[in-house]
Write a structure and sequence with these properties.
Shape: globular
Largest sheet: 8 strands, mixed
Structural class: alpha/beta
Helix content: 25-40%
Number of strands: 10
Radius of gyration: 18 Å
Order of helices and strands: EEEHEHEHEHHEHEHEHEHH
Distance between the termini: 21 Å
Strand order of the largest sheet: 1-2-4-3-5-6-9-10
Number of helices: 10
Length: 284
């Protein structure tokens, strides 16, 4: 059963979906928070993963991060990595208030960008008893890697953009994807386009735009530098062998130490694990 819920995070109300087993029980159940991709919403990949987890006996919570989707936060589209981690913490806090959740058995799962924010949050929030990521992405590294000079310029200009917003000007938005692709478009961009810009994965609230001044916060954020703090709790990074972001999962596991595991899915790309049944179901 899926229910609309709301919970607070840093003074903003976040919109969520709570998935509960169809056959109620008087026992408190373990729960998992599932976070969405960068520039995405809860109705995309989280809506695929959450019901499967609920079938396994978990209460599962998906949510739109602050500044995204149906959740509050202005300017909409801000990619604040520290707030994204705070959203995971507050999602766990919400679950601990529920009579049907066992507060000692709460785990978190991040997909794509949330796959770096979830482990970051867990480094210091020990209520998160197990941590996992699917196609986990070092978001600052991803934005920086395609055009290091361009990203550095965005960081340099972020202060000016903040001043413009303070003076009443609308936030400057950056398109995460082009409006069209062709054979000359880099493979990873075509892959994202095929999900976000087609009926396969498109959702009207997933704008695929982010606020340009987010760059100064992203530039200060290091997803996995302190991943060892998660131990002795387990960290599971799940990635396709053909994923452009596989090195991010490898780095996370290396930094986290003996309680971390990298599980690879042969032949899968980064976006394949968003929704492609042939890569997900056989290894569920």
């Amino acid at each position: 059963m899926k229910t609309d819920v709301r919970f607070p995070s840093s003074g903003m109300m976040l919109a969520g979906h709570l998935y509960t087993p169809d056959h109620p029980t008087s026992a408190r159940l373990p729960a998992i928070v599932v976070g969405h991709q960068t520039t995405a919403v809860k109705e995309q990949s989280p809506a695929l993963y959450a019901p499967r987890l609920t079938e396994e006996g978990f209460i599962t919570l998906t949510f739109d991060a602050a500044y995204q989707g149906e959740s509050e936060g202005e300017p909409h589209g801000l990619e604040d990595p520290f707030q994204r981690a705070e959203d995971f913490r507050n999602a766990v806090s919400y679950l601990t208030t529920r009579d049907d959740v066992d507060p000692e058995r709460i785990g978190i799962l991040g997909i794509c960008g949330s796959g770096c924010y979830a482990p970051y949050a867990a480094q210091t929030d020990h209520r998160m008893k197990a941590v996992a990521a699917v196609s986990g992405t070092d978001v600052p590294g991803f934005f920086r890697g395609g055009d290091p000079d361009g990203f550095a310029k965005m960081v340099e200009q972020a202060g000016r953009l903040r001043s413009e917003e303070a003076a009443g000007k609308a936030a400057t938005l950056v398109d995460a994807l082009p409006d069209s692709v062709d054979d000359s478009t880099p493979g990873p961009v075509r892959e994202f386009f095929d999900y976000y810009k087609t009926p396969r994965g498109h959702h009207p609230r997933a704008t695929n735009k982010w606020v340009a001044r987010s760059a100064d916060q992203l530039d200060q954020f290091d997803s996995f530098a302190d991943a060892a703090k998660i131990a002795p709790r387990p960290l599971l990074m799940i990635a396709g062998t053909q994923a452009v972001t596989l090195p991010d999962s490898q780095r996370a596991v290396k930094n986290a130490g003996e309680t971390a595991e990298l599980f690879t899915i042969e032949g899968a790309t980064h976006v394949d694990l968003y929704d492609k049944d042939e890569y997900i179901t056989p290894r569920w």
